[in-house]
């Protein structure tokens, strides 16, 4: 039993040093969480993918293959995930409170990228905000700011199924 636990811990350390899966890279966690929001309504639209690329480019200053690699790593990590814990724990470990609040704003930007926001997207953003310690007030303020950035005049136009 002790050997299994020891091997498990060694595998985690080896993966982290290897850098291939980048399990402790907060950037991969951020992209994976974006994919969780994009997938929440059952459709990943081209506009959501385009917005993700723009946001990651602006956020991390990546272009070309570096950006492609980050997005691919985040997409793969997100598709393999059974819950948000792996990503939210990385985010909590690497980002301060203001950065976590800005992350929620970024997730709202993704939710509004296709011109509509579903109840499922709301739920995913709410759960992520709770897990990373962002207050309900800050979550709502970030949603309102994202709505303005999306240039949607009235939230009644948003699909809240």
UniProtKB/TrEMBL annotation:
This is Tellurite resistance protein B-like protein. InterPro entries: DjlA_N, TerB-like. It holds the Pfam family TerB. Residues 28-140 form the Co-chaperone DjlA N-terminal domain. It comes from the Bacteria.
């Amino acid at each position: 039993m002790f050997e299994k636990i020891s091997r498990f811990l060694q595998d985690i350390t080896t993966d982290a040093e290897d850098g291939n899966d980048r399990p402790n890279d907060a950037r991969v966690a951020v992209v994976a969480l974006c994919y969780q929001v994009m997938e929440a309504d059952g459709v990943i639209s081209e506009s959501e993918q385009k917005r993700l690329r723009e946001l990651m480019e602006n956020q991390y200053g990546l272009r070309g293959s570096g950006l492609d690699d980050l997005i691919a790593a985040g997409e793969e990590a997100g598709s393999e995930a059974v819950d948000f814990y792996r990503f939210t724990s990385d985010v909590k470990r690497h980002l301060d409170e203001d950065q976590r609040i800005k992350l929620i704003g970024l997730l709202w930007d993704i939710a509004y990228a296709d011109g509509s926001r579903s109840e499922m997207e709301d739920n995913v953003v709410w759960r992520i905000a709770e897990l990373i310690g962002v207050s309900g007030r800050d979550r709502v303020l970030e949603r309102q700011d994202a709505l303005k950035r999306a240039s949607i005049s009235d939230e009644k136009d948003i699909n809240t199924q």
